[in-house]
Design a protein that fits this description.
Blueprint (H helix, E strand, L loop, with lengths): L1 H4 L3 H22 L4 H18 L10 H17 L13 E2 L2 E2 L10 H4 L5 H4 L12
Antiparallel strand pairs: 1-2
Helix pairs in contact: 2-3, 2-4, 3-4
Length: about 130
């Protein structure tokens, strides 16, 4: 934990690699399976977590749960079409890997309920191929 709080490159790399896959899977399935949007949200979540790492309390829950909770605001902002926030490139360096902020040029249809939005892709009871799960 001290390595994270001191922004030690090796500690940040281990932390990132330990949690990135689980967070990406969670975000990907929460943002309508849009790879670019999911990657953007995961990057913003890790950057946010790096800034707030002093607030993490292992007595209150796991790191994975904390990252998931942080990601929810970023998911909401992304689905509303808020796009990526500007981040200084130096703040994204995580040892051997570098988090890159993706451009916010994704379709805004998700936020407007257009083609591919959650409102248009969910099936309803009685629809052909509807599954209750």
């Amino acid at each position: 934990m001290k390595l994270l709080q001191s922004h030690d490159p090796q500690g940040l790399t281990l932390w990132f690699e330990r949690h990135v896959d689980a967070l990406h899977a969670y975000v990907y399935y929460r943002v309508v399976r849009n790879e670019q949007l999911a990657s953007e949200v995961v990057q913003e979540t890790f950057l946010d977590a790096m800034k707030r790492i002093h607030r993490f309390d292992p007595k209150r829950g796991s790191m994975e749960a904390w990252l998931t909770t942080l990601s929810r605001n970023h998911i909401t902002r992304a689905l509303r079409g808020g796009g990526a926030r500007t981040v200084e490139p130096a703040a994204t360096d995580v040892g051997s890997r570098t988090l890159q902020v993706l451009p916010a040029d994704r379709p805004r249809a998700i936020a407007r309920g257009g083609p591919g939005s959650p409102r248009n892709t969910r099936s309803r009871p009685g629809d052909p191929g509807h599954h209750p799960w």
